[in-house]
Specification:
Length: about 260
């Protein structure tokens, strides 16, 4: 691998390691996710470890993000991170609903979960956790963001990616079904994922805009189906829209400060 191909593959490796959250990932998992031969994945990981970008637990044989990324991330956070701005809103959503609340950011054609707050209800959905990534249109956060992209961009994404999404996440992500969910999200203002990632695990999401009015983040609530279907879905959606609007206003004011 040379040039831009090498950079692209290293970025894919780092993303997969990052999605492993606190449990880390194995070399085999990195190879499977990136399409690299295991030997190549091992060499890339070793090279990244030499620079401090990943770290390996020798006892368990699992890879984690390394200290150099923490240092770089601390610098980048001054410009890009709004997680601290969202923390109290996440806590409020978790307390008011009893469900788990999450804050996710758009990164290209994906969302990455940046923060979460567990609710008080003892049964929880475990689909989301900090660091996990999903393509736009899959989890409720990504569906909310997709729905509020410019219409031409959203339709183009659905046409170009629906076959891939359907193969990975099921037939409800084919063109017609996904287009219908995008339209429904735009109409009611919030997204609903009725157990399409993991059966019985529901999610509701609302988009958060940046200072330019671009859908850049999303707030979501997740839980078990019995807590989300029926009238309560609309109640949770209304709470999310209120919280997402408040967070958008904070971000706009922060940019003016």
């Amino acid at each position: 691998m040379q040039g831009t191909q090498l950079v692209t593959r290293m970025a894919a490796v780092l993303r997969r390691v990052g999605s492993g959250a606190a449990e880390g990932v194995t070399t085999a998992e990195v190879a499977a996710a990136t399409g690299l031969p295991r030997s190549t994945a091992q060499r890339v990981l070793a090279a990244l470890a030499g620079e401090g970008f990943v770290d390996r637990d020798a006892r368990r044989g699992r890879w984690f993000l390394g200290p150099e990324l923490f240092l770089l991330g601390s610098v980048a956070a001054e410009r890009y991170d709004v997680t601290s701005t969202a923390r109290d809103i996440l806590r409020s959503l978790a307390v008011r609903t009893g469900e788990s609340a999450f804050f996710s950011a758009r990164r290209g054609d994906e969302t990455v979960c940046l923060a979460g707050e567990e609710g008080s209800f003892p049964l929880r959905s475990h689909v989301l956790h900090e660091g996990i990534r999903f393509p736009l249109g899959v989890a409720s956060a990504g569906l909310a963001i997709l729905a509020y992209l410019p219409l031409e961009d959203a339709e183009g994404y659905v046409r170009s990616r629906s076959a891939e999404l359907a193969a990975a996440y099921g037939g409800q992500h084919e063109v017609t079904a996904l287009s219908r969910r995008v339209a429904a999200t735009r109409k009611r203002g919030y997204a609903v994922n009725p157990g399409l990632v993991v059966p019985g695990s529901w999610g509701v999401g609302a988009v958060v805009f940046d200072r330019a009015g671009t859908p850049a983040w999303a707030l979501s609530l997740t839980g078990v189906e019995s807590r989300f279907n029926g009238e309560r879905t609309a109640q949770l959606g209304a709470l999310l829209l209120e919280a997402a609007h408040a967070l958008t206003q904070r971000i706009v004011r922060r940019g003016r400060a």
